[in-house]
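Researcher: Go.
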Amino acid sequence: MPHPEVPAPRAVVPEGDRVEILGGRTAYWTYGPADAAVTVLAVHGFRGDHHGLAAIIGLLPDMRVIVPDLPGFGDSTPLPGRRHDIDAYRAWLTELHATLAPEAVILGHSFGSIVASAAVAGGLPTSRLILINPIGAPALEGPRGLLTRLAVLYYRMGARLPRPAGEWVLRQRAIVRGMSVAMAKTRRRDLRRYIHDQHDRYFSRFADRDVLREAFETSVGNDVRGFAPEIAQPTLLIVAERDDITPLAAQRRLQTLFPRAELVEIPEVGHLIHYETPGPAAAAITRFLAPSAADTR
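Model: Structure:
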């Protein structure tokens, strides 16, 4: 189902490319002109894959954008012999950046904001950092903290059941749809249908329950606050007025932890900026990455 407002971007290689990173095969898609002045390496959120950022990418036609599937999600294999914790994700993104596009700006959405921040704080040499719906406070303390606790129980149950039963529970379409309904804020029926279709199609494309559990534990056990003070690069925070995971007040506090960060607040949207308001997000990114008057960036 196409986005009701944004044409789907065309990848240079429609089926994606593959590269070996930390012993696993990472699938990635490249959009935009090869000679673009700016390259962005973008990291999607928890349980999703590269499709989740398509609407924003479709509004950045003059940029080269590379979007991998996180290890163990979409078409990427898990990282062999490693627990998928924050150190593994940080090492993965740092090596991927060095391999594919050492000049790229880093962008992370939701869980991807944690991975991106950890990597940049750990020394990934990017010139700028963009975080969309950053996880700026512990998920258990957010406006939907109770739902997050229920999610913890859900993933624990999926991990403890016999493997076939656990896999079945974790891929249950009804659970995915309930999450989608809870997170969507738009009242537009066409946009809600698109959001639900995206989640139905792509939110169960994980390799196995072990990868999913480890990624979930990493997502609720870390947030951007712990990395922000170590990030010297100019940083753009694109946040939502009605985010159920990190409230706006916490996002404003998060901005103060970065040495050089600016905040763009988008009204009447929650944790699905990438689906519901890709236009304002893309406009903020375009402005942030535009060359300065002295053409120094």
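Model: The CA atoms of residues 154 and 170 lie 8 Å apart.
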